[in-house]
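Thread: Modeling a multi-component assembly for a lab meeting

Hi all, long-time lurker, first post. My supervisor asked me to bring a structural picture of a complex we are working on to next week's group meeting, and I have zero experience with this. I have the sequence lines for every component (698 residues in total). Could someone generate the structure of the whole assembly? Inputs are pasted exactly as I received them:
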Amino acid sequence: MSAAEQIDPSIDHYLAEFSRIERDLPGSDDSKRVRSTELKRFAETGFPTVRDEEWKYTSLAAVEKRRFEINDESAAIDKSALDAFMPKGFEAHRLVLVDGYFNAGLSDLNDLPAGVTVRSFADHLRDNAGVGVKAQEVDDEPGSLAAMNAAFFTDGAYVETASGAVLEKPLHIICVSSGAHDDRMTQVRHRYVFGENSQATIVEHAIGLGDKAYFANVVTEAVMGRNAQLKRVRLQEESERGYHVSAFFGQQRRDSRIFNHAFDLGGRLARIDTNSRLVDQNAEVHLNGVFVPTGRQHMDNHTMIDHDTEHSISREQYKGVLAGHGRGVFNGKILIRKDAQKTDSDLSVDALLLSDKAEVDAKPELEIYADDVTAGHGSTVGQLDEDAVFYLKSRGISEEGARAVLTYSFANALVEQLGIAPIERYVEATLLKKLPGGEAFADLA
Amino acid sequence: MISIKNLHAEVEGKPILRGVDLEIPDGEVHAIMGPNGSGKSTLASILAGREEYEVTQGSVTYKGQELLEMDPDERACEGVFLGFQYPVEIPGVSNLYLLRAALNARRKYHGEPEIDAVDFMQMAQEKIDHVGMSMEMAKRGVNEDFSGGEKKRNEIFQMLMLEPNLAILDETDSGLDIDALKVVSDGINRLRSPERSVVLVTHYKRLLEHCVPDRIHVLYQGQIVRSGGPELADTLEAEGYANLETDEAAATS
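Re: Modeling a multi-component assembly
Sure thing. I ran the full set together rather than chain by chain. Output:
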């Protein structure tokens, strides 16, 4: 290692930044020790580089050269600023974080059912000295950015469901970057702890306002008790100069189910790591994702499903729509360990290239050590069917319109699996708005 | 309605049409028959604006305008309709949505306001009944999981909704059972009026029994080698296309 690398000015900045805010960070003394350890873990490797196999196609050079400062407080934003991001007809409990801090005024957590706790994670840490900054059950959170998050996070959502509790209405967690100042970062951490037989739907909605550069680093931990069910929706609408990094760590006990639906629509750069470990029999995970880099957007999805014991199920479907100079990456790893006999797994990724300047790398990666498993995978990269384009044009639809409608058709097949109509409509309309000529067909949604 | 003069076209350098001349007056139904590979579908595709064919000579005038200079969507807005031999499936976009978008595209082109939702549904219900489809099918994705016969019915449904001035039906009658064939021919007969013309590209005389054309043209090796009244279909059935070559030889000598 050269001397220049040892005193990386970027790392220095974040070490100084940590010293500046350390005493305000929520958590017990034990937590503070963990945060320091995590900071060291981050400092040792720094930001990932393209030399790292896991980051081969995604450069964080633009993030690294900036000096993001953590927000001391949240900017005052008007409720109406969020109106445009509210899916029409979406009835939900609402937890709003602005610039990394819980905002009670914008939130609505009044009529939560018995047995369901939803609150600020910072408050939860302050009130419970025994609660750690990292979930004990999630044994490993690899990556220097997850470490950075563990060190720095200011707040997040804490959700706990008692045994048998059911959250009928979804929970809508909104993470807003206000864009009030240049070069700010938000470090947010959510923890979901699901009791036996409990069930909830949680929508994590990332929103960027304004045109300032910022860095949003989100970690979500989900600890799933026996036969519990989480439907998690990630809706990413960072603004044009927003850098978004998100990691999910699921830990699934017997018969538990995670249905994860990710929609990446915004941001300058987004890197999403979705990991779930199926530690017990008959656990089931479904990962669906739609990513739509247009203009100069870059979106990178990495998934890792770890089949630990026998009889567990995973289903994974991703669709990418790439236009303009859009850049997409998908890497789906399925690990089937030696004891994970009778694993049933399937992964597919399909990408649609709408321009010759767009580019995608899509790779399923299967690592199988058991000998009695079903593991299917497939990957396609293609363009729109010109016969279908002509068909629509022959009915009077413009060239652009025909392409927008067919692109919608391609993505919609996955969107409509979500099963939450107001969000399906919202995602479809947002997708159409992103496509040239699509606005005229917004009512398709 | 449409006047085709000395039309030559090729695909990937291979000549397909070699001087087609054809006049279709307002209000007439013309059938184009001929063996496989004679250029029938190419002619239909060129009229609708498919881009993989290169027109090397000749002209097509439609209602006094140069048709070949118009984009396919513009042609549609001007009242040209192509019934596809192989209609495509578009999941997630309903048949009704497509039709409303198509009607509105045309209205916008002509500077008219969008169609009223109630009027549209009334019109759709009426036409759905004509072609023996159900509203449930019309609400499904475009041709999504439709059988071959259902797709052709849907083409006729679209044609009746869009009320074209010039309908070009490319083997819409192929692969149909007798019920579906009757739907197709009834649809064409409904459309017939003094201001609309129809071009039927077909292999089979069967359609022409239900939907009697004003003229029949035989396309052979890229040229119209014979034209006649509806009785020509019987001759072709009796004699086949075997002696066309001698006809062509006679015509050019």
